[in-house]
Amino acid sequence: MPDRPATWDDLVRHEAGKAKVPHQLALAVMQQESGGRPDVTSEVGAHGLFQLMPATAKGLGVDAADPVQNIRGGVTYLRQLLDANQGDVSKALASYHGGPDLAQHGPKTSAYVQSILGRLQATPAAPIATAPVGKAPVSSVVTRGVPAVGQPPPPPDPRQFEPPPAYTGGIEGSRFDPAVKAAQVGQPPGMLASMAEGFDPRQPAGRRNLVAGAGALTGALLTRSPAGTRAGATLGARVAMAAPRMLASAAGAGVGGAAAEASEQVVGTAPPDVGAIAKAGVTQAAYEVAGAAFLWLPRAVGRRVISSRVGREAAQQLGRAKQGVVDQTQAAITAVKDLTRRTTQGLSTRLGAVVGQPPPSPSAVGRAAQEVIGGPARTARDLAGQAVETAAQGGPAVDIRALKSEVQRILSTEIKPPATAFPREPIAGAGEEAATAAGLSPEVAQRILAKGGPSAVAMQEAIDAAQGEAEQAILKHPALGVINRILNAEDTVPFAAAHQFKRELDDAVGATWDRSVQKRVTNITKTLRGTLREALGVHAPYNRATTHYATIAPLYTKEIAPRLRKLAATRPEALISLIKGGEPTPAKMLRELLTTQAEAGGGGPEGRAAWDQVRASWTHEKILRGGLDKLDANIAKLDPEFADIFYGDASGQQVLANMKTIGTAYRQALAREPVALQQAKVTGREALERARLEITRFTESSLGRKPRAGEVEADILRAAMVPTTFWGAYSIGRLLKGPRVADLIEWAAYSPPNTQKLVRAFTSPVPAVAIADLLRAGTEPTKRTLGGGAPPPLPSVIGAPPP
Predict the structure, then answer these.
(1) What percent of the chain has pLDDT over 70?
(2) What residues pair up with 245 in beta bridges, in sequence order?
């Protein structure tokens, strides 16, 4: 059988004894907190009997929803507070209600303490509400630190610190055991107190009754028949269980009565009266048999009647416990999902602020960048160009005869005049190969063939015409004007003039022109430009200035700067779309323009602010806009060189680190949720399985069958009205069979206190002993004097009365 006390009060006494806490104090706290109910919950979430808060229960290692653990936790917590306050009960109670900081307690805590002290100081007419029938009320404070009102406390009763024995499933050792009851509360009150006259130890009859009653109780408690306690035990098995108990009780009473009578006869001159001793033993045994027989039928019927109420209460409590497990499991699952939701919401908030204040719109960012590039950055380029011009003014004269020779070669070999000016040999053959051999592009050759047909003459004429057109276009190119001035210049010119030739030639080659003509001009002037650069390379200051200018010039002529200038007026927001996470070069050039070049042009703060805006806006648009789900993937797409360029400074590194941290936390939160959900489900399934096993155990007990409406009442009526008929006998048999005593005691723990008292009355051997004692008290009263007369003398122990 499971180790289950009969009532919550018994469990409180048991746990209080283990913790060395006065059980009156623990009971008073339980009544003040919850009224002794395990199913109440306070507005702040405190649960059950001692109203433990979830955090307190967790710290004590107990489950507040489990009544047994709740009581154990409440007693343990009370013990801790008594120790922390050096045994001062008032302070311990104040800490239990208002927390350990006594200075923060208010009127409610004071009222709470006074209420419990009032319970402990109650008079016998007002006992503690949870004291069961048969228990003496607490009439004074029995623990250190709780003074009685207006007077010092009486000395403590050492019996109150003794824990009740653990219940093992039967009468013995349970709350219903009279020996345990006597050990807990001492002298029994009520009905037994009225029979004190028949148990006066100063009289022989009183001593016989006392010893016989003790012997009867000992014999009843020491006798037990397992066959009568099995589920579904027959009526015969139950009678077989009761018979040995009745015989043992009678035998114990008889032995006790005989022993008491024998002790009254002192060995002297006369031999012991064996007949008187035997008569005393038989008489006391007869009292026990009569008492047991008198109560056997009422107790059997009472157990049958009360079993339906006990079974109903147990079934309801177990059903509520099962539903509570389901609700707690669902609450745990909801809590896990809510935690993940709140975590991701918090991470989303952090992600939105990862680059500081919300950045300006992409269009505003584009305009700010364009203003810096067209302002301070352009000034830096102009200053670099001015440095080249200044260096050119101080250079030595340059011999340009080699340039003139290159010009002559270009004019004579690279640029062919029309056939009318320079007659040529006809081209042999016809077709695309001939046109290509003549230096024409495939497109021009196709156009010529389409016009002139396949004949060689027509082909020659078409080629001559096309060549004339192409060469005329080349002659119109600005580079040819520069070449003409070089050809007509002196053999030695000032350094500045040579620099002017180079700059104009570079500008002409870089100018926008017909693609085919531009390509041809670039090719035919390549050597000329190289020769001119070599001629100017003799001046070191000029070399340094031109090298610096050549370094920064592409920033203004290539990649992002030209496109940004083109989009500045119509689509400035396109700047963000021009920056690609996998293309580091445009980002590097833009950073150079907005930081280094802007600084050189006198606009450092404006340039840095524009760069920060570009980075913030790009980060929001390209990295953060996808949310937490795409954060890690967007960061992973960044080219390492791009990430170093874009987030290389201190503030950028912090932004990147923040994003990676948030991404990691988000992954971890998503990874934790399935594990936590699985754990909550497993815990719920285990708890539900335990609840189902408990319900199954109850269902399989003798209380598990739900009687039909009116079944018990019908059996009582038939047994009373027609006891000699078959149906009357059948009903009597069912009433006597009733439930298994151990089941009734075990499952009564789920019933209200009044029902538990009835169970105690119908299962304890104490009532039968009490009936036998009534018989003893009624038939063998002690003699005492009424009206003030002198009592009769006691029998002499030496024969004749003394003089």
Answers:
(1) 69
(2) none
Angle at which helices 235-264 and 204-222 cross, to 10°: 150
Instruction: Please report the DSSP string for 359-396 in residue order.
Output: PPPHHHHHHHHHHHIIIIIHHHHHHHHHHHHHHHHTSP
CB atoms within 10 A of CB 328: 17
> Coil, helix or strand for 413?
helix
- Does 164 reside within a domain? no
Number of domains in the chain: 4
CATH of the domain at 70: 1.10.530.10
Residues with catalytic roles: 33
CA distance linking residue 71 with residue 459, whole number of Å: 115
Range with lowest mean pLDDT among 349-363, 543-557, 656-670: 349-363
Q: Are residues 267 and 290 both part of a single domain?
A: yes
Sign of CA dihedral 353, 356, 358, 364: negative
Q: Say if residues 557 and 512 touch (Cβ distance below 8 Å).
A: no
Say which residue the tokens 């079993």 belong to: 307
- Collapse the DSSP code of 757 into the 3-class scheme (helix H, G, I; strand E, B; otherwise coil) and give the result: helix
435 and 526 assigned to the same domain = yes
Residue 398: both structure tokens together: 């340059």
Q: Are 316 and 751 within 8 A, CB to CB? A: no
CB 767 within 8 A of CB 295: yes
Query: Closest Cα partner for 505 from 612, 400, 656, 658?
Result: 400
Domain that holds residue 603: 362-378+560-572+583-637
CA 224 to chain centre: 51
Number of C-beta neighbours around residue 685 at 10 A: 12
4 and 22 in a single domain? The answer is yes
What pLDDT is stored for residue 438 in this prediction?
Answer: 53
Q: How many CA atoms does the CB half-sphere of 727 hold within 13 Å?
A: 9
The token pair that represents 713 in the structure block: 């009442």
Structure tokens at 99: 């927390």
| pLDDT tens figures, 657-697 | 999 899 899 999 989 889 999 999 999 999 999 999 989 98
CA-closest candidate to residue 741, choices 768, 761, 770: 761
Identity of the amino acid at 667: R
Residue 268 has pLDDT above 50, yes or no: no
* 325 within 8 A of 687, measured Cβ to Cβ: yes
Same structural domain for residues 138 and 198?
no
Are 256 and 215 spatial neighbours (Cβ–Cβ below 8 Å)? yes
